[in-house]
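User: Sequence recovery, please. Input:
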């Protein structure tokens, strides 16, 4: 068992940037198996040390993600073989192809064509000069005039 003043590290040298604390969740294990949790003392680290630590974490994450991705792709391929169909791959060779929006008559997508339409000219003009294109909910001035008994057609802008 470790005495209160001793420190243990998984490597041969204890870096000065780490503080060593036993985990409170693993205290019930026998002393031979009790691991020691190594936590970085972030507040005591310099900016350069933090940058090195960030780069190390990023490298570890990218390798682990690549390994997980390849393992999942192997599982997908194995399941596809069981089904009797080859696994579909996109342009990058990774997984299923992405869905794209349905093209409209002009060749662009529906969303892009809606953005190109621009402003709509007004269709109705009120007595005080207010205008409304006829799209969406009717404006308050028109609703109030219709409530007074006037007809919407009387406010149409004639061309």
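Assistant: Recovered sequence (159 residues):
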């Amino acid at each position: 068992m470790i005495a209160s003043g001793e420190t243990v590290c998984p490597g041969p040298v204890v870096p000065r940037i780490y503080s060593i604390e036993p985990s409170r969740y693993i205290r019930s294990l026998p002393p031979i198996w009790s691991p020691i949790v190594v936590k970085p003392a972030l507040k005591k680290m310099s900016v350069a040390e933090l940058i090195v630590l960030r780069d190390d974490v990023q490298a570890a994450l990218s390798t682990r993600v690549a390994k997980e991705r390849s393992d999942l792709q192997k599982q997908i391929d194995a399941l596809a073989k069981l089904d009797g169909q080859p696994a579909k791959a996109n342009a990058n060779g990774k997984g299923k192809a992405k869905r794209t929006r349905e093209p409209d008559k002009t060749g662009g997508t529906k969303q892009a064509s809606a953005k190109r339409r621009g402003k709509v000219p007004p269709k109705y003009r009120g007595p005080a000069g207010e205008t409304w294109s006829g799209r969406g909910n009717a404006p308050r001035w028109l609703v109030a005039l219709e409530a007074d008994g006037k007809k919407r057609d009387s406010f149409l802008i004639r061309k």
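Residues 123 and 133 are 5 Å apart (CA to CA).
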